[in-house]
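Q: Could you write out the predicted structure for this multi-component system? I'm mainly interested in how the pieces pack against one another.
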Amino acid sequence: MEVSRREFLKLAGLASAGAVVTASSGALLTGCSPLIGMEDESLNAKNMGMLFIPSRCEEGCHDCIDACNKMHNVPKHDNKDHEIKWIWETEFQHAFTEYMENELLKERMEHMPFLVMCNHCANPACVRVCPTQATFRRKDGLVLMDYHRCIGCRFCVAACPYGARSFNFKDPQKGLQNPVPNPNFPKRTKGVVEKCNFCSERDIHGQFGSPELPYCVEACANKKGSLGESALIFGDLKDPEFIEQFEKIQKDEKLIPLRRKEIAGTQPKVYYLV
Amino acid sequence: MMYDTGKIVAGIIIFLAIFSVPFWYSQVTGDAEEVPNLDPALESLKAEGKQCVESVDYMRAKHMDLLNTWRDDVVRGADREYVSEEYGVTYDKSLTDTCLEQCHTNKSDFCDQCHTYVNVEPGCWECHNIVGE
Amino acid sequence: MIEKALTGSKKYWLWLGFCATLFGVGAAFYIDQLFNGLQITGMSRDVSWGFYLANFTFFVGVAASGVMLVLPFYLHDQKEFGKITILGEFLAVVACAMCITFVTIDLGRPDRLVNLFLHPTLNSILFFDIVVLSGYMLINIIVGWSILDAEHKGEKPRRFVKPLIYISIPWAASIHTVTAFIYAGLASKPFWLTAIMAPRFLATAFAAGPALLIIICLILRKYTDFDPGKVAIKKLSTIVTYAAIAGFFFLLCEFFTAFYSGAPEHTATLKYLMFGEGGTGLQPYMWGVMIATVIAIVLLVNPKTRYRDDTLVIACVLLFVSIWIDKGLLLVIPGFIPNPLHEFNQYFPTLKEAIITFGVWGLGCMVLTVLYKIAISVKLEVGDQEIEH
């Protein structure tokens, strides 16, 4: 017995050392989320983000949501449980649950619509937990889905602190017209997770001409008549010109920038100017 | 040690017979499919002065690998430009916009003919739409 | 040895037939799920994990608890466990197989399961979990089978077996720890974000698993000639008692942190479960589980009731069922309620979902019965000789 107990302690020591090493290497890896390479080096320095100014929204206008749903073939299912949402409208206390009990703030925000979507976090929890790297962070800061690789485990849905991810409980075609609204953009299959992609399919960096905007931003700018008055503004958070514009709006319209669920530590990149 | 030899041999024969169904089924039933032939289509494309992104032999053997690489490059790396190793020409890495739009406009003739024959079902069209179809 | 599973009483075949039917019906409904997607379940955009993963979590615990027989026998020379360690090892094998099945049926695209290994991702706990679970299953089938085979032939076990047994002990703890980390590592789910998740998982597992083994031992004693031994059952019941108390203590710790601090995110789910704030769907289960656990602990702590077979069985059944409901309905699911936007959406498994789940149970029972049949036949054949270790 003596010998085998000693034997055990040796093996247990080895095994736990192994476990610690693997676990800590895992922890090291999670410290920064891996970036997936891009051929064009100039994009590596970018960090795309969104500003949303609820006070600029017109009541009852859903042009941004409609444009997104149409251009991305987002299905519309009758059963609320199986809804697919990329960008949608909610109320202040749902978008900012941590201020739910702040009556003074709530009162001032109550009448305003709050758009919510994927925050394309700089430290995304979804990317950390995905077992196949089907969701990944591209070097320009976009958190994207590879629908070819997703196994539908929904770990990312559980990990997202914003509820921004939807799972295809049924064939998306069931909630779409035939042919689909935008034949140039693929639909998804049942069994994969999907979400806002900051219009990664568009030429948002202007690699092939003048830069295109995400459809939601474009729809808002069209409605308002100019990009300067849009409630949604898209840009590179590392670009000094964009930051200048960001600060100017804050100063001129006396607004402060909030981000959702700062406490989750994900470094979201959608700023709410309220 | 050996017993039930007859039963064992019979069992093995039945197993082999069932296991080899794919090899003799069409011979016996006579409903073998016609072997697809892409040559006429390729000839007429050639006559129009068109060439594929790589040589025909390469494409025959490796088109699925090439498309998979294109897919990963575009989806995961935003890398859209493909320079042909054979001809040095630059193409957009897109099955729908480059391959189907510019040359192989008839998907059922060009893709499905062979895929049906060898009974493979690429998942592409579950999501990607063929414009105009 | 395997031929021993092919002969048996009528009862044996009837039971196997029953398990096979359960499995068959479950499989038929799973085909429905393959065609129609996970919409046939009660899961939703908000409660995106349900009964499948809850059962997965529970059975990881059952698998880990096999170690509660292996450890005393091999490390503390508790000879009484010698006859039944094999039951623990085979239970672990079957539980692991069920876990892997539960994960697979929960996938939206099971056809892409192999992506887990084509694109291994070290920072994903789910990837780790599948690796440690498969490893644990492999270790236990090798160890269990070779020891049984050696006994059957009257030989000493092969030399590689012993190191494997020692590895299996920390490995058992690791499978349930890694499973707990799936939940405890998400900042998005305050209900799960607790450092005692892994210890709590282990405590409840070491109560539920041995409780199941006691029930199995008593069934075997009644319906077969195999006698697991009174002392072994007695010692198992002691393990169950301590583990159940530890598990309940951890639950009370959760209550304290949430309610005394009053941190809104941490209390929201508990208020929902206990007081029905936001929906009363799971409230009766929460109270039912707490009451059942207390009754079981009372029956177990009192030596008079612990050493009587009938009261022991009641305590074990109460514990097993309440821990199953606790992990099944009260841990995985309420983590999603309320959702990140503080909206309350209820979940309850659909009939189809339950049938598929019990199909996996049927599969498990079937394999377990066959393995136990082999083990017991061998044990009866070699008789009461001292087991080498």
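A: Regarding packing and overall arrangement: Chain B has a mean pLDDT of 85.
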